Every structure is written in structure tokens, then in C-alpha cells.
């Protein structure tokens, strides 16, 4: 794995761990051979293995079976992310009845000499989430865009924006025509900013708003000392948008469910 690949992997993992570490219904477990989250909630967001490496002490098929059993015993799905093409791990996942459900690009962008350029979308305003009304609007847009039940939306959005900001987590809204129309979350750690939860309300899509609010979040992170930006693009359309901003594809992230 290259240095860039490792940066993307570690910061995506750190993003999940940071957001979920204070959630009462989620347990974050980190060892020398894996990073994973588990919960009695049924979403893959909170039941996920993200950084498995065979220990060398047992057969990978048996190791993965033991890990998967901690989820299966509770009747919840296990989502398993891989960041490198590893035939041994892939074969062990298949042997344990895991199915590959997605393959997304992990993308990276240097902010060392980056200069912010306004998107030029007429009438677009930006706000960092601070008030209860803004929080409610943020959660609503996340919910309708990703089709999440309310309980998961609350896990992924701020309980206290002041505490979140101290942990490097910032949530932003875009407004147009007086209405909240787009969201983005940034997590800044160790000079690297991860971009998450980019959504746009249906009537306002294909107007450059997602690109604009992502660009704004990058501006704020850059002003706070970010030197690199990373993200996981969830669709070819999203990857195309991020390439326009200067991101490049560095790694393929496979997700399995079992």
C-alpha cells in the first residue's frame, strides 16, 4: 500500500471512529489487527469491520468466522471494508458467505498550494451548524438523501456543536431561496481533512451546489491548517464532481456484507 493509500485508509477509519466514539449505542474496538464498530442497531454504518489484517496465528477463514459471529449472534449485518486487493482476505470473506456490494474510489487532494475559488452559484449561502433549527435542517437533509431512519441520523450529526468543533468535526449547510438545500461534514485531524455526508435536496440537484458546499468546507479546513483532503466517492457521478475540485483517485475501497 502506498503512502497516499495509507493516508486515505487511516483517515476514513479515524473519521468513523471519531464520529461514533461518543455514541452510547455503539462500541468501537481497535486492536493490532483490526478496527471495527458494533451495535445492536441494525445499520451497517455502526456494524462494520474496517481494517482487518490476518494475524498469522490462525487461518483467515477461521478468524473472519469468529469476528462475523459476534454480529450474527445478535442478528445484525456485518459490513466489511477492504482497502487493498488481498486475495487471501477476499477468499476468506467469500468462504464466510460475505458478498461484495460496492467498490468505491478513495480520493485525495493536496491543499498545500490550494487557492479557494468561489463556486459562483447565485444566491447560495453557507452556515456552520450551530443552532437547534440548523441541526434539525441538517438531520432532515441527511435523512431524506440517504434514506436513514432517524436514530442513525442522530448518531452521525452533532449533539453539541461546540464539543464537536473541539474534536475537529464541522457540519455545514447551504441555503438558497431561504431554504436549507445541502450539507457537508468535515473532520480535521493531524493536518488531513475528511469530507463526509455531502447531500443536496432533490429540487436543487445538478446546479453545482454539492460542489460548492464541498469547496466551502475545504476552504474552512484549509484556513484551519489542513494540508491534505480525503474522501470516499459513493458513485461515478460523485467521483466526477470531486475530480473537478482537484481530487484524484488513489485506492479502491470494497465493501462486503455478511
Automatic annotation (TrEMBL):
Domain N-acetyltransferase as annotated: residue spans: 124-258
UniProt-listed SUPFAM superfamilies: Acyl-CoA N-acyltransferases (Nat)
InterPro entries the record matches: Acyl_CoA_acyltransferase, GNAT_dom
GO molecular function list: acyltransferase activity, transferring groups other than amino-acyl groups
This protein's record includes keyword Transferase: yes
Keywords, alphabetical: Transferase
Protein name: GNAT family N-acetyltransferase
Amino acid at each position: 500500500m502506498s503512502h497516499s493509500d495509507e493516508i486515505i485508509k487511516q483517515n476514513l477509519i479515524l473519521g468513523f471512529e471519531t464520529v461514533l466514539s461518543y455514541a452510547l449505542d455503539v462500541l468501537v474496538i481497535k486492536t493490532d489487527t483490526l478496527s471495527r464498530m458494533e451495535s445492536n442497531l441494525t445499520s451497517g454504518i455502526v456494524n462494520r469491520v474496517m481494517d482487518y489484517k490476518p494475524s498469522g496465528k490462525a487461518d483467515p477463514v477461521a478468524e473472519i468466522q469468529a469476528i462475523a459471529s459476534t454480529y450474527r449472534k445478535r442478528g445484525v449485518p456485518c459490513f466489511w471494508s477492504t482497502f487493498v486487493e488481498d486475495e487471501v482476505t477476499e477468499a476468506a470473506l467469500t468462504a464466510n458467505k460475505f458478498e461484495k456490494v460496492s467498490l468505491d474510489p478513495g480520493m485525495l487532494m493536496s491543499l498545500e498550494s490550494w487557492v479557494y475559488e468561489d463556486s459562483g452559484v447565485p444566491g447560495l449561502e453557507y452556515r456552520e451548524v450551530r443552532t437547534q433549527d440548523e441541526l434539525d435542517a441538517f438531520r432532515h437533509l441527511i435523512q431524506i438523501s440517504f434514506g436513514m431512519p432517524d436514530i442513525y441520523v442522530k448518531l452521525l450529526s452533532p449533539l453539541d456543536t461546540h464539543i464537536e468543533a473541539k474534536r475537529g468535526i464541522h457540519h455545514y449547510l447551504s441555503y438558497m431561496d431561504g431554504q436549507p438545500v445541502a450539507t457537508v461534514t468535515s473532520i480535521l485531524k493531524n493536518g488531513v481533512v475528511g469530507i463526509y455526508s455531502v447531500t443536496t435536496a432533490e429540487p436543487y440537484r445538478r446546479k453545482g451546489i454539492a460542489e460548492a458546499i464541498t469547496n466551502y468546507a475545504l476552504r474552512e479546513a484549509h484556513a484551519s491548517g489542513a494540508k491534505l483532503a480525503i474522501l470516499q466517492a459513493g458513485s461515478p457521478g460523485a467521483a466526477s464532481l470531486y475530480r473537478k475540485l482537484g481530487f484524484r483517485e488513489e485506492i479502491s475501497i470494497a465493501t462486503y456484507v455478511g
